[in-house]
């Protein structure tokens, strides 16, 4: 009698290692319904992935108003831990226009308000305004404004082992995970974050 054929011990894919991350069962379905069932499973998987993803961490979008007459304020050359140097001292190095400092290309720049705390480790707090420049080419390690499946998010651009982009949060104390960009993900880098500002009062 031949020993060939039949089920071999430990053969096949390990349990839970398939496309859906869990054991599967064999089913008989009408041939005409195969494509419909595949579409349903694909939609279910997308919905489940969306439920695991954090809420978007951007709020309002604002366009900078650039004045023809820049407002130039004193920029002191001394470094002070607290307090304010006396204007009578000879410490005024030059005058600085805030718009000129924050904005490289006015035509391609806008502001976005941060919502949530997924980027606090890089100093972006809820309510901060970030400066986004659409004309800049994003590099690995840049903070970017991205569109993932039609939702805006601000994260650090990185690439995984499979050379596909991934968006990294910056909150070591929170339950935030990277957003992995898959071939079927709607993904676009909308701009590079070049700075931020906030008011304390």
Protein described:
It is built from two helices and ten strands, in the order αβββαβββββββ. The longest helix has 19 residues, at 34-52. By secondary structure, the protein is of the alpha+beta class. Residues 1-23 are annotated as: Disordered. GO terms for molecular function: DNA binding; hydrolase activity. InterPro entries: LexA-like, LexA/Signal_pep-like_sf, LexA_repressor, Peptidase_S24_LexA, Peptidase_S24_S26A/B/C. This is Peptidase S24.
Topology:
Elements lengths: L33 H19 L5 E5 L9 E5 L15 E6 H5 L6 E6 L14 E5 L9 E6 L2 E9 L5 E4 L10 E2 L6 E11 L4
Antiparallel strand pairs: 1-4, 2-3, 4-5, 5-10, 6-7, 6-10, 7-8, 8-9
Any descriptors?
12% helix, two-stranded antiparallel sheet, eight-stranded antiparallel beta sheet, 2 helices, single chain, 201 residues, Umud Fragment, subunit A, alpha+beta, LexA_repressor
């Amino acid at each position: 009698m031949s020993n060939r054929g039949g089920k071999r011990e430990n053969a096949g894919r390990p349990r839970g290692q398939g496309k859906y991350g869990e054991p599967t069962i064999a089913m008989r379905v009408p041939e005409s319904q195969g494509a419909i069932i595949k579409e349903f499973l694909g939609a279910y998987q997308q919905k489940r992935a969306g439920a695991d993803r954090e809420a978007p961490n951007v709020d309002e979008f604002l366009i900078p108003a650039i004045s023809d007459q820049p407002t130039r304020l004193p920029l002191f050359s001394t470094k002070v831990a607290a307090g304010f140097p006396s204007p009578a001292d000879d410490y005024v190095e030059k005058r600085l226009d805030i718009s000129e400092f924050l904005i490289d290309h006015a035509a391609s720049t806008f502001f976005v308000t941060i919502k949530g705390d997924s980027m606090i480790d890089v100093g972006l707090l809820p309510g901060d305004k970030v400066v986004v420049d659409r004309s800049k080419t994003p590099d690995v390690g840049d903070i970017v404004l991205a569109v993932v499946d039609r939702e805006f998010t601000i994260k650090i651009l990185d690439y995984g082992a499979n050379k596909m982009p991934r968006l990294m949060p910056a909150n070591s104390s929170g339950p935030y995970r990277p957003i992995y960009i898959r071939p079927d993900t709607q993904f676009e880098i909308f701009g590079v974050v070049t700075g931020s500002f906030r008011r304390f009062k």
